[in-house]
Design brief:
By secondary structure, the chain is mainly alpha-helical. It has two domains: 39 residues; 197 residues, MetI-like fold (Orthogonal Bundle), CATH 1.10.3720.10. It contains eleven helices and no strands. The two termini are 22 Å apart.
Length: 264
């Protein structure tokens, strides 16, 4: 028992999964007691059975699949665009102090601005089509990604750079053969975090005159106080986010098995 509370002490996987499952079970029990006992009105907290019935219905009839498809498309496109732009900018900011002065202060400033506040401007700039929804997710993730990538580059030990220069490597070689391989595993972890941010901005993105998507279905259910549908939509988004998170984690272990924890 004492080993469970030692700093960074490894525990048996069975114990880990048992504890994780126990947390979810505890939340479900508390939820059931509060809703079934009448302590909390179903308008505010639906019964688990009602939420389960809603999910069975929408998956059984197939009405939720188009929403999952269009929401996933918006997430993927916004995330990919942010990664294509944010990774190079972050690497530049972490590598060159001049680029850092150009990029990082602005990124740090913008990333503290609330993305929902940009929704009216995005509608003016891009209209109410798919581009606007993708732009919300793009803005929500890009300016979080840049500083994290820059920090990853700065975490590369100076000894590695000095050794490369001592061996006659050029600046381009140091970047391509030392810095980029060194930050590759951490970059995958950073992207795993960013895909989580992208899912959290989904509902905000689908505020932009949407008529489809998981976020839209949640907002539509809100108008009619369908809290079972609201909870169901939230659970679906949470599950999809967890799936993408685990896929990134698995890819990291398979692609970079030498990284810390990669072989576990």
């Amino acid at each position: 028992m004492r080993n469970l509370f030692r700093i960074r002490e490894k525990i048996d996987l069975k114990v880990y999964y048992a504890v994780a499952a126990g947390v979810f079970l505890l939340i479900l029990v508390i939820w059931t007691v509060l809703s079934e006992s009448g302590l909390v009105s179903q308008i505010f907290l639906p019964k688990p059975g009602s939420v389960l019935h809603y999910l069975i219905n929408v998956f059984g009839t197939g009405t939720i699949w188009p929403d999952i498809g269009i929401s996933s498309y918006r997430i993927i496109m916004g995330f990919l665009l942010a990664a294509l732009i944010g990774i190079p900018l972050g690497v530049m900011a972490g590598t060159f102090n001049f680029a850092d002065a150009l990029i990082q202060p602005l990124a740090e400033f913008i990333r503290y601005m609330p993305v929902p506040a940009f929704v009216p401007l995005i509608m003016v700039w891009f209209g109410i089509n798919e581009t606007a929804k993708i732009a919300v997710i793009f803005m929500g993730t890009l300016f979080q990604l840049i500083p994290m990538m820059a920090d990853s580059v700065r975490a590369v030990p100076d000894d590695l750079l000095s050794a490369a220069y001592t061996l006659g490597a050029s600046r381009k070689t140091v970047i391509m053969k030392v810095i980029l391989p060194a930050i590759a595993p951490r970059t995958m972890d950073t992207l795993r975090i960013m895909i989580g941010w992208a899912w959290t901005y989904l509902t905000v993105a689908e505020l932009v005159a949407a008529n489809s998507g998981l976020g839209y279905s949640i907002l539509k259910a809100q108008r009619y106080l369908r809290t079972d549908a609201i909870f169901g939509g939230i659970l679906v988004i949470g599950f999809l986010g967890l799936v993408t998170d685990r896929l990134f984690s698995l890819a990291n272990r398979k692609i970079f098995p030498w990284a810390e924890g990669g072989g576990e």
